[in-house]
Structures are given as structure tokens and as C-alpha cells.
Write a structure and sequence with these properties.
Keywords: Membrane, Transmembrane, Transmembrane helix. The strands form four sheets. The chain has a seven-stranded antiparallel sheet, with helices on both faces. A five-stranded antiparallel sheet has the order 16-15-14-17-18, with no helix packed on it. The protein has a three-stranded antiparallel sheet with strand order 1-3-2. The chain has helices at 5-8, 12-40, 45-53, 62-67, 71-82, 122-125, 189-198, 240-248, 262-269; strands at 86-88, 98-100, 111-114, 129-133, 138-142, 146-150, 158-163, 181-186, 203-207, 210-215, 218-223, 229-235, 251-252, 279-292, 298-307, 312-319, 342-347, 365-369. By secondary structure, the chain is an alpha+beta fold.
Length: 371
């Protein structure tokens, strides 16, 4: 049977109609699937799950164990499920458009979330745990659903992180067990410089203000003041969104409130430590100058700083005579501080007079360049 020509001719309208159907049908199918899934769930399904999230551990249901025993993590998972951003993995593989659960709850490998899901919010990370290493002067936050286990860190051992509910499995090689994150502290500044030559296509970046090299599943950070070390991170099954938050919480420095005592801080870091809130002044550098005596001999070198309230202050930081310097050995004044930079002066706020006195004692304060 010969069809009429009107039915077999390809017109511009039919092309447009085909394109529209080709694009919209997959989305329509996905939406109908989600609506069907919601329609088949019993009334109050998600409300009941939220109740399970807040039950005591010894009352946990099997389903509650599957979505994570940490209440905040559990509830965030349910939010994603209810919004249609969650799927069960099939044979350990996520459906197209979905990826492993970034909340890292127990059995998170069995759960998938939309690849377009937003990164964790500050509210979701507010209860994260803190790992602190006082010997090397750094700390960072990590998810509540992780736990840590270290192996003789001072002698080349690792700091390992695992998911709650898993049994640690380790090897003596680089990350090859079931860790989600493994950290090694080793080497020195020369090793770090050498990594730039051997690490394939490293990305130069900053982590907590420190130089860092990033390449796929490895990050190397140069840390320390008087003694440089390389902080090496081997990344396991951690989504980039989670990793980004972890790296953003890294803190380095010698502020005394991170240690039990100021003396302990100074012994462990080899630097001068000050209590929290010990900023004596912040201002803009107007000059980096020398002061001479009547015989034209250099006496002092100082910074001329205009503070935020418009007052000019002379910050003595170097003596060429018998007196020692007024600042710590690692103060940024050892660099070429230039006009226009913003600096912060740390020290004992009750000892403010020493800032401008040429007979100040050694290590009275610390000058830090902010920008």
C-alpha cells in the first residue's frame, strides 16, 4: 500500500517535534519513575525513618544501620532520598547520573546520590570531629562517621581514617587497604621540591596558607617552621566535595590556644607562641625604614604602620647594636615587607609599649603579613 506523500515527507515541523521528544522523554521517564516510587511508599514512610535516626544505638533497626548511625548524617540522607536524589546501588554500581554517597554514612557504598547534588553545607559539617597533631602544629576537621587509627607516626607511620562500622584493613604500602584517607609525615623541603619533578602534572595550590601539590588522589603539603616536613595525603573513596571541605578546615600555626601551655607550644613547634586574641595591632605598611644615630650609623630598622583607626605606629624589629631583635626569628619581617601590605602584630597586649621602644627584648612580638 502506498502512503500519501503528506505522511512521508519530512518537514521542518517534524524535525523540531522529533528533537523535542528526543530531549524530553528521558527526563519525563525519570520524573514518572520518581513519582511512582513516592506513590508506592506507605504514608509517613520518611517521617518514620527520621524517628529511627534518633533512636538509641541498641534500638537501631536494620534499615537505620544501613543509612548511618550518626543522627545528622542519617537525617541528611533521608532528606536526599525524599527529594529523589538517592538511589540504591545495583551490584555495587550506581545508576547513570548518580555517584557514591558523599555523606559517608555506614554502608555508604551501597547508596548513590545525584551527581548534581550540592556539596555539604556548613550545617552538615558543624559537628565534624577534629584531628589535631601538636608535634607538627596542624589540625583539620573530618566527618563524624569516620574514626582514626595511627601507627607510630613519629617513625614514619601512618595516620589512617576509616568509616565507622568497618574493620580496619591495612598494608605497608601506600593507600591500599580500606582507609578513606591515609596521612604520612616525612621528608623535608628538598623532598617537597623534588616532588615537583616526579609527580605527574602536579597542580600548585595552597592548603591552610601552605604550599601544596595536588595530583589525582594524592596531595603533598609543605609544613613546619624551623623544621620543614612534607604532609602526604593518600585519598581513598572520598568525593571531591568532601575532600574540599576537609582541606578548607586545615589550620597551621603556633597560636598558643591549640596547646595545653604556651611553653608546650614553643617546645613542640620551635617558634614563639602567643595566646588566642593576642593581636596587638593590624594596619597598612607606610614604610620599611632604617634609623641612624648622629654618626650616621644604623641603629634600628622599623616598619611605619597606619592602623585601622588612622594612627601611625613605628614597629621596631631590628637592632644593629648590642641589643637583640624585637621580633621572633620566624617573623615575616625577615622578608622584604613592602609599602601597601597589610600586617598583623601578635604579642602580649599588656606589653604594647615594647613595640616602639628601641631597647625591647628578644621575641617580644611577631609580625605576620596578611596580604
Amino acid at each position: 500500500m502506498k502512503l500519501p506523500k503528506q505522511l512521508t515527507t519530512v518537514t521542518p515541523f517534524s524535525k523540531i517535534l522529533f528533537a523535542v521528544l528526543f530531549i524530553t522523554l528521558p527526563f519525563l521517564g525519570f520524573w514518572l519513575g520518581m513519582e511512582y516510587e513516592k506513590a508506592t511508599l506507605p504514608t509517613g514512610y520518611y517521617q518514620e525513618l527520621r524517628k529511627q535516626c534518633n533512636k538509641n544505638d541498641n534500638l537501631m533497626t536494620t534499615f537505620y544501620k544501613r543509612i548511618g548511625k550518626i543522627s545528622g548524617c542519617c537525617e541528611a540522607s533521608i532528606d536526599s532520598m525524599e527529594a529523589g536524589r538517592y538511589k540504591l546501588a545495583e551490584n555495587g554500581t550506581c545508576p547513570t547520573g548518580f555517584t557514591l554517597n558523599s555523606l559517608l554514612c555506614i554502608d555508604s557504598y551501597k547508596w548513590c546520590e545525584s551527581a548534581a547534588s550540592p556539596t555539604p553545607t556548613p550545617n552538615q559539617t558543624a559537628e565534624w570531629k577534629t584531628y589535631r597533631n601538636e608535634k607538627y602544629g596542624f589540625e583539620f576537621e573530618y566527618p563524624t562517621s569516620w574514626f582514626t587509627q595511627s601507627t607510630n607516626v613519629e617513625e614514619g607511620g601512618y595516620i589512617n581514617f576509616f568509616l565507622e562500622g568497618t574493620v580496619p584493613y591495612l598494608t605497608n604500602n601506600d593507600k591500599s587497604g580500606n582507609e578513606v584517607l591515609r596521612i604520612l609525615i616525612y621528608g623535608d623541603e628538598n623532598v617537597f621540591e623534588g616532588l615537583k619533578q616526579v609527580v605527574p602534572a602536579p597542580t600548585n595550590t595552597l592548603v591552610g596558607g601552605k604550599q601544596a601539590l595536588k595530583n589525582n588522589d594524592q596531595i603533598d603539603i609543605l609544613i613546619g617552621t624551623t623544621e620543614k616536613k612534607v604532609l602526604h595525603l593518600d585519598i581513598g573513596e572520598v568525593r571531591q566535595s568532601i575532600l574540599g571541605y576537609i582541606l578548607s578546615t586545615f589550620r597551621f600555626g603556633t597560636m598558643g590556644d591549640r596547646y595545653q601551655t604556651l611553653e608546650g607550644c614553643e617546645q613542640q613547634t620551635g617558634d614563639k607562641c602567643f595566646p588566642a586574641g593576642s593581636v596587638m595591632l593590624t594596619g597598612t605598611v607606610l614604610g620599611n625604614k632604617e634609623e641612624k644615630d648622629s654618626s650616621d650609623i644604623n641603629i634600628d630598622r622599623y616598619l611605619l604602620i597606619r592602623t585601622k583607626d588612622g594612627i601611625q605606629r613605628k614597629i621596631v624589629y631590628y637592632h644593629s647594636s648590642m641589643y637583640e631583635a624585637c621580633v621572633t626569628e620566624n617573623s615575616d619581617t625577615g622578608q622584604a615587607i613592602t609599602v601597601g601590605q597589610t600586617v598583623e602584630v601578635l604579642g602580649d597586649p599588656t606589653d604594647d609599649a615594647h613595640i616602639e621602644i628601641w631597647t625591647c627584648f628578644s621575641n617580644d612580638y611577631y609580625v605576620k603579613v596578611l596580604e
